[in-house]
Queue: 4 jobs
Job 1
Amino acid sequence: MNENSGNGGAETHNPAGGDLPALIINGQYVKDLSFESPNSPHILGDLQQGKQPDVNVNVDVQANKIEGGPSQNLFEVILEMRAELKVEGKTGFLVELKYAGAFTINVPEEHLGAMLLVECPRLLFPYARNIISDTTRDGGFVPLQLQPIDFAGMYRANLEQQAKTQAQAHN
């Protein structure tokens, strides 16, 4: 990390060369957080009786250029996470989180997508994971510990799907 940057964030090597770091974290923040437990306290009793919960987790990444900022290379990346626990079809909890970061990115255009949709969410994920864990624990449940996410795999799958869709559109 460049101690003179004053940004307090992570930096990576700039493949384009030059003095600017490839990635600067300008800030991280919760955009939206929601927790619901519509069947408490009964669902907690079901869990204590050993009934197996079904947990479904969905993750999405959004990236947007921040217009009018101090830099032309300023982007907001939003990690959207939704986790739902059900026991025998009854909802135990539903937690939804939009955790975001403002990033300055100084890479060639061909690397921008990977930086926004792989590297930035990879940096945001541990903080979002902790918020989900704390929120489910504070809601009276065993803390939900999400496993690491393969953002590179998600990115590749998305590129393959886009290529397939474009190929079908041209046929």
Job 2
Amino acid sequence: MKKLTNKAVLFAILGLVVVYGIVTILHQNHILNDYIMRIIILMMINAILAVSLNLINGFTGLFSVGHAGFMITGGYVAGFITTLVFKVTAETPYYQALPMFVIAILAAGAVSALVGFLIGLPVLRLSDDYLAIVTIGFGEIIRVIFNFISFKVDKGGWVQDVGGPRGLSGIPLLSNFTLVMIVFVLTIIIIRNFIYSRHGRACIAIRENEVAAHLMGINITKYKVMAFVLGSTFAGVAGALLAHIIQMLHPTMGGFMKSVEYLIMVYLGGMGSISGSVIAAFGLTAVSEFLRPIGELRMVLYGVLLIILMLKMPAGLMGRKEFPFLVPLKERQIHAKN
């Protein structure tokens, strides 16, 4: 994998440190209230979901329509672990809850990766249409499964049903700005390094021409499954973070419409652009919240805005371009010569 050792990357790291410091100071001085901080956290979580989906759809050329299913899987796994296994509550000190939360995040990513592998291995041998149909079905299966999974929990002498059609509530607030930003940056670095590795180049070759890639000796199924599992892993991690910021989950959150939202972020930002996915995720999350006061009418304006942007920019906001610090130095030099 390419090492992040050039000036552009150093400036990017310095920029992240400055942004983190500014946001933290503004929040501590109550210039940024808790609501705004919550929106910023949701922006980063949505960016993780958009970038991981772009790895599958944009860089590998697949067509997954069930990303929310992996997200909700990770969310439920992490939520069950923190609330039912470790029994973390609002009264648990954060320094004690954090190691448990990290374990829950890792478990969420692992389970989502396993589910992605079990779905992808048989299906990715077929054409993309089959993948789209199967991932839509997967989202519905996940919704039904979590709709029926419930537990009886003894809470101070009285028994309460947890899960099922009621959803999972009482999840502790463990996702904060610092933790989510660390996971967000790690996601960008890992997926960026994967894309510019030989594995990522194999995925891009499959996207460009699957037949030619096969003739060059690339194991098509292997790299499709690899990209699908990696994308599913980060979707599960994002689901764990999301569950512990909104503090509740419902089976409908893994449905088709939620997956479409993430698809919109990918297509609007640009298929095959990490930078575009981040920009689109941040922008659409902010716009959605900004239009919330007008109620259901916001969805009409939201749709009109998307139509205008896609008509003016059919390749997305960034196309396949990246911010310089995300592109290895040798790659930039090759593009400069051409």
Job 3
Amino acid sequence: MNRTNTLTKALCRCLRHSALGGVAAAFAFASGPVFSEVDSEGIEKMPELVTTQVQEKMGINVAPAPDERRMYVVDPAAFDVLSKVIPIDGNTGKYLGTIDTGLLAVPMSSPKDGTLYIADTRFDLFSRWNRDDFIAIYDPRELKPLELIDIPNTRSGAMVHRGGSAVSQDGRYVYSYQFSPSNAVVIVDLEQKKHLSTIETPQCWYVHPTGERRFAVRCRDASIVQVTFDENGKEVSRTQTKPIHEPVEDPTYNDPAFDQMTGEMFLVSFWGKVFPVNFSGDEPKLGESWSLTTEAERKDKWAPGGWQPLDLHSQSGQLFVLMDRRAKWAHTSESREVWVFDIKTKKKVKTIRLVHEAACIAVDRADKPYLYALSSHDASLGIYDVETGALLFSQDELGHEPRLLVKHP
């Protein structure tokens, strides 16, 4: 292979990954040694150089302000202690930079002003010794850390899900799910910049903001517990629904489709059954369940599948689900299609065929939404026009094994 081309490609990759965050070392190449080639007669020929004009002042690019098409790709790198959060501008498909984070970090975009919060875990000696859990506050344009808020060192160590941490709709509180030493929700006041309290939720996990100083958790018996707390983080009331589904025979995915702006949630089982819940009132309201598939489709082995296999677009009343033909218990494998359902009629209205299989999907909140389909195996993201199903943009090299999409509310 031509060594100049190889070096050029390496330089391009370096420039791409240093677009934001202050890395400028790639420009040093222009002053380094240059490879040359020798022709058949032994005459040395110099290749064209990849050069850049010298800047008087170095600077850092600034990302556009986050809007409804801002998306965050999370690469937990298969439980590596250093993971990445990668912001994507859905308007252009551009890779905006990389935020280096710790173990199983979960980003959260504030519904109030787009400020980026990341629930993070670090260790003194890379992967060992003293552990420190915290909420990091980031500028969503310069992607730089602004402040840290200390929290108990009890963050869940499970693979990342959107319910691992969340910001309340008013932007006042962060909720972080705790697994050990007990199931609980850590409450952080973002105005006071401090941990307020930890509210235990035995045998219930993940957390979803459902109102002013109120959150919901899903429990082992398939019920939902909703907790209200006061300004000091002290529990005021707690309600619990009946079981929504049969937890053993019809288990649901850990990552439901949820819109905290409207209070709508849709849980989907491994076998394709939908269980609606509405949190817009004082207490959760359970809706009538329905199936994603017809009898003929079930016989043909169509079922949902992926890690983050569904999302909701409340403005159009549409539910998006990753679907494929699959064997039983292959519910986490990537899928080749996205089926779009009208949540009022409970009917499929569209099929979007993906260029690459995907493990995760998200739909932005624009009036004419885009669909974001993330492949963990290929570390690539496809952005599709929902109306036409056309692939608009594609990004690859998104870390080691990206596993989550988090959108701006």
Job 4
Amino acid sequence: MVRALCFHGPTHVPCPPGTAPDRIGAGRSSEVFAEGPDRVVKLYRQPFEPEAVANELAASRLAHGFGLPVPEAFGIVGRAGRTGILFVRLDGPPMTLRYAYNPFGLMLALRRVARIQHAVHAYPAPGLPSQHARLRHQIEGARVPEHLRNAALAALDRLPVVNRLCHGDVHPGNVISTRAGLHLIDWQKATAGDPAADVARSELVLRYGRLGPAWFSRLAPVRMARRLVAAWYVASYCAASGLPRETITAWRLPVAVSRLFGRPSGTDAEVLAAIEALVRNSPDFEKASLFASPGQSLGRG
């Protein structure tokens, strides 16, 4: 028998007692378990960062309060020595599963996601951490040679400090497809920042994020498809927002270098090779493209 505590402000409300819930999802930093018919609990893996949990709760509540398609967050929970957040349950699969065999449907859904991301950016982000400060911290600790770090920091210094609501990790794996529409989850990386940087992060994940085994990501047709999907997403966001593509391009170098902070992933070598190509071939970072031409090898994925 497990009994959790749900924290609603200063009041500790006991969650309904019950046996250990069924796991319905998992990621690198957390697992999601059913909590009755209408709630789920997202439990963070050990060790976890308390600041990230608090930030996800604050950002989720902020976004839900603005009326954005975000699951309602009820509070922080403790369960069997682990910490997490209790959310309303969304009935539906992630976009990655919903459109796994429907490329045309995926492209249309991505256009809807771009519109949701633009809607997120319409709001302020009081109390959330600075995107600029977080990027600087991550670049300073990134697994890159010093000349790449310096180039990214120089590019960051030329970019504006903005205070709009930014999710920090918008991609199909963080979007749930329900009968009521698409919902954006996993707000632990949310910041107050520049919408262009938020879109640059989405573009980078679409292009280089983990997608199956390493050998699959190295296939030329897969690389081509992902390049086109990323370009489609940016075009969809620009169409929805009126933001010039060059504004997003300006953020690609610092955003890419910041991705090589923290735990390594199977695509680090590919991202590093792309960063090196950018710095080597394009002294004007704000106009250069992070992404190589279809025929250029970017190294091991």
